[in-house]
Amino acid sequence: MKVEIANLSIAFPTPRGPSLAVRGVSLTLGSEKLGIVGESGSGKSLTARSLLKLLPPEARVSADRLAFDGIDVLTASERQMRAIRGKRAGLIMQDPKFSLNPVMTAGEQIAESWRLHRRTTRREARQAALDLLAQVQIRDPARVADAYPHELSGGMGQRVMIAMMMAPDPELLIADEPTSALDATVQAEILRLMENLVSSRGMSLILISHDLPLVSHFCDRVVVMYAGRVVEELKAAGLARAEHPYTRGLLACLPTLSHPQARLTTMTRDPAWMDGVS
Amino acid sequence: MDGRCQLIVVDNLVIRFGRVEAVSGVSFAVARGTAWGIVGESGSGKSTVLRALAGLNEDWSGHMRLDGAELPRRRTRAFFRRVQMVFQDPYGSLHPRQTVDRALAEPLVAQGIGGADAAIPRALDEVALPQAVRFRYPHQLSGGQRQRVAIARALITSPEILLLDEPTSALDVSVQAEVLNLLSDLQRERNLTYIMVSHNLAVVAHLCPMIAVMQGGKVVETLSAEALRAGRTTHPHTAELRALSTELEEP
Q1: What percent of chain A has pLDDT over 90?
Q2: What residues make up the domain containing B169?
Q3: Which terminus of chain B faces fewer neighbouring Cβ atoms within 10 Å, N or C?
Q4: Number of compact structural domains in chain B
């Protein structure tokens, strides 16, 4: 499986003409874990969602190439896209409170996602749901399977989401700020769990986040976006050697326990950053 | 605890929601002009303590004192003149159909203070917002600008105490740094007393020299920011939170 994005632009119409939210982004992804980092409005989520054609209807997308495993997403029909979404590429969003169906039990939702992409019986699907819940390290799968989303904590909810996305055995997992709504202790567990599942199944991962140090712990490669462009691409291990002033600024302005600063470093945004990688 | 030299004293505070005891006997005291941090995970009761202090929940038992005087269940207007609160999400805490001008005038009206025409431009200046923002609506501002408006609104009646509930958690990291710097500057200039609640240890340790760690409705440890940085923790939960924070902050 290979993802190719070349010169991707996404624009939204405004009364003052089209506003470019993503401007000429190019990246490729093989069987690896890629982090996309940027602040709100940097275009990181739009870039990843364009792969699944899950953009707001008014978005205007253009690209030299936008392909998922050789399938041209730009010209793909809804029918072709439905064969990719969920089945070959799963999407995990920020808050399980909003992405789970509140009137279905966790088990029914996972079983549904399992049945949707396979010919199987209800009983088999139920068993598969329990297995998946055990795989996302839920201690009491039978109890959680019968629980409604409001009866689950944020961390549990996100485990259920991950189990649901893993059910069709996808090749790519897109996780859009999957742990921003969770506590620090749970955050680390969920990311570790995701990393393990992705590695053991040989899947690809796109992890979208605003937290640069965090992403670097769970990815092989990190792409830093600013104002709709990629300003820097680095090996996760080489974060300390980041060169772009924006990337360095993102790291410097974080308060840390180990390096107290009387005053936090703030960023002076250089208009030249708008131009991205030259 | 000696309540006389402390500006705020919380003594054996208990808060129940139905059968659930969300806060079980929390006590701490904050001296004038200092910043007190409360950290903990969701459900630890940290925000519940802050909301009770702000007078947003009247159903509690125990004692809360301001300047030695027992706080009544229903807060007086004079209380809100001295104590103001800044919430996590500036989009939720600003009225979407009120201009910044109106949002900033509201506390003055409520307190019966005149001179809004002079106070509002000054308040915008203090939080480094351009005057042009005055007649805009919240949706026309960025997240950082909105949080600055929320801070300006809290400060416009010149309170002594600010209660800060995750004031930077909804902001981008670069904006978080600006808002935290602003909060330190304001504290120094006005000798403000802060009580800040956050799940982010590094953010709390940056602003607050003293920190209470909450778990399951109780304060499990009170320690200095310095001790936290150095790893001199006594409770395993503090050590766990610290380990996660330091492990993930290094690239």
Answers
A1: 71
A2: 6-249
A3: N
A4: 1
Q: Which fold has domain A3-88+170-275?
A: Rossmann fold (3.40.50)
Report d(CA A79, CA A96) in Å as an integer.
Answer: 27
Helix (H) or strand (E) holding A221, with range, is: strand A221-226
A278, pLDDT greater than 50: no
Chain segment B107-147, per-residue pLDDT in tens: 999 999 989 999 999 999 989 899 999 999 999 998 889 99
Cβ–Cβ below 8 Å for A267 and B246: no
Question: What is the Cα–Cα distance from A135 to A129, expressed in whole angstroms?
Answer: 10
pLDDT of residue A277: 59
d(CA A131, CA B233): 40
CB contact (8 A) between residue A258 and residue B203 = no
Contact check, Cβ <8 Å, A253/B174: yes
Q: How confident is the model at residue B88 (pLDDT cuts 50, 70, 90)?
A: confident
Residue A19 contacts residue A43 (beta carbons within 8 Å): no
**DSSP per-residue codes, chain B:** ---SSEEEEEEEEEEEETTEEEEEEEEEEEETT-EEEEE--TTSSHHHHHHHHTTS----EEEEEETTEEPPSSPPHHHHHHEEEE-S-HHHHS-TTS-HHHHHHHHHHHHT---HHHHHHHHHHHTT--GGGGG--GGGS-HHHHHHHHHHHHHTT--SEEEEESTTTTS-HHHHHHHHHHHHHHHHHHT-EEEEEES-HHHHHHH-SEEEEEETTEEEEEEEHHHHHHT---SHHHHHHHHHHHHHH--
The per-residue pLDDT for range B201-222, each reduced to its tens digit, is 999 999 999 999 999 999 999 9
The reply to whether B202 touches chain A by the CB within 8 Å rule is yes
Q: Quick check: B29 contacting A, CB < 8 Å?
A: no
Please report residues of B whose CB lies closer than 8 A to that of A216.
Answer: 251
What are the backbone angles phi and psi of residue A156, rounded to the nearest 5°?
-60, -45
| CATH number where B48 lies | 3.40.50.300
Q: What DSSP designation does A85 have?
A: B
* B251: confidence class by pLDDT, cuts 50, 70, 90: low
User: Under an 8 A CB cutoff, do A257 and B201 touch?
Assistant: yes
At B144, list the tokens. Answer: 């950082």
Closest to A210 (Cβ–Cβ): which among B173, B245, B248? B173
Asked whether residue B1 is assigned to any structural domain, the reply reads no
Contact call for A257 and B202, based on CB within 8 A:
yes
Please compute the mean of the pLDDT values over residues A40-47 and round it to a whole number.
92
pLDDT band at B3; cut points 50, 70, 90? very low
Helix (H, G, I), strand (E, B) or coil at A272: helix
- pTM greater than 0.80: yes
